[in-house]
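I trust your eye. Have a critical look at both lines of this record:
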Amino acid sequence: MVKAFVVGKFLPFHKGHEAMIHFALTKCDLLTVLICCSDKENIPESIRKKWIEKSFEGYKNIEVKSFNYLENELPNTSESSTEVSKIWSLVFKKMFPDYTLFVSSEKYGDFVAGYMNIRHIFFDESRALFPVSASAIRSDLFANWKFLPDSVKHDFVIKVVLLGTESTGKSILTQQLAQHYNCSLVSEAGRDIIDDSNEFSFNDLHLVATEHAKKIDEAVLGKSPLIIIDTDIHITKSYAQFIFEKKLDVDDDIIKSNQANLYLYLGNDAPYMQDGTRLNQIERNFLDLSHREILQRHKIDTIEIWGNWTNRFDCAVKEIDSLLLKRAVL
């Protein structure tokens, strides 16, 4: 029986790592993936472990373990030097006394395997198959989004939600912002399911909540880490309270899908436009109060956007740019 191991920080886990693990699985009967977690890193081992386990669900000949260490006691594992490799080979020898194979894409793989007196197999050392590194992803998430497995994207996606009462330009602004940032968008599910704001059932709101969360989850796996979302679950809850005077209860998964990094609330000073399917202007303004009350009750902090259409776009871009600047480095 051939036992093999791979090691890494997986900050974050990417498709190059994923491919290396798939490759290693073809070379052994049992593979252990070891996550080396230092006290200087800001992504918990539990999250890194979840990424890998999710990507290899159903595989029975793989196990994922973690090793926590202090950088003032052990050197950084990513250094390709003989001295560092010698120190870490002693750690690995204790953990894997009967393992005979080490698979890596780094030069230190040869050093470690040599000190352990086991075999080493390189995988894509030149990174020709997957021209990416974890450090490159950390420095430019947008350019390297395509290299993240689906299991990782949920933890790095940036969600911006546009909120507001009817006829405040949410749908148009969502499209404008998505085009401006060349990113994914989620349109309002309510407009697909409910034809007229004056005629729908309470059960329709459950369908809206479920479908909207589904659309958000699909967008997370899309082309960009940024998603602009038209409306969210709090607005659906507000409709339930405003129209039916009933509380809309939904599963925790729906709440989680709707959680966002930035909430922009469009004021009702926009010109009212009645297309025959909306509430009248008086009801629309009372609905605005309902939305605000629900958001306050759920402790959702919003940034107000007022003014004409140009001003709304400019203000939204300013807030999103500020958010992206904060998220520039993982």
Summary: The CA atoms of residues 81 and 266 lie 56 Å apart.
